[in-house]
Structure formats: C-alpha cells, structure tokens
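Incident review: delayed structure delivery

Summary: a single-chain prediction request sat in the queue longer than the usual turnaround. Root cause was a stuck worker, restarted by the on-call engineer. No data loss occurred. The affected request and its eventual output are reproduced below so the record is complete for anyone auditing the incident later.

Affected input:
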Amino acid sequence: MINLDDHKIFNSELKMETVPLSVAKQAVAEVFEKFEGTSTELNGAIDMINQALKDMNQSVTDALKDD
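Output delivered after worker restart:
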C-alpha cells in the first residue's frame, strides 16, 4: 500500500505539502481494490441479518396468533 507521506513534497508556490497526482491516483486505486471485496462480504452479512430479522418477526407473529 502506498504511503502518501513518503511521496509528499513542499510546494513553495502554494506554501503547502503536495503529493504528485499519479501517486495519489494509484493510492486511491489500491484502497478501492482492497475494499471492493470487503463491501461484497458486508452486503452478504447485511442480507443474512435482514433474513434473520424477518424470520424472528415471523416467529413472533406466529406465536402471537397461537395465543
């Protein structure tokens, strides 16, 4: 993973530290690629939680009908 601190340079005209655009783009691409699979896993977990809540709701509804 790219450490932006390793690529920063002081731009005296802007009076601030900057990072070359190509390095910044590569860093963003790496982070996106790393977390792209994670979002798929997270969506799967959310779907499982949603299904569990629906099942619990149905169980409670069925139990209340029996009373």
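Verification: The longest strand covers residues 9-11.
Action items: add queue-age alerting; document worker restart procedure.
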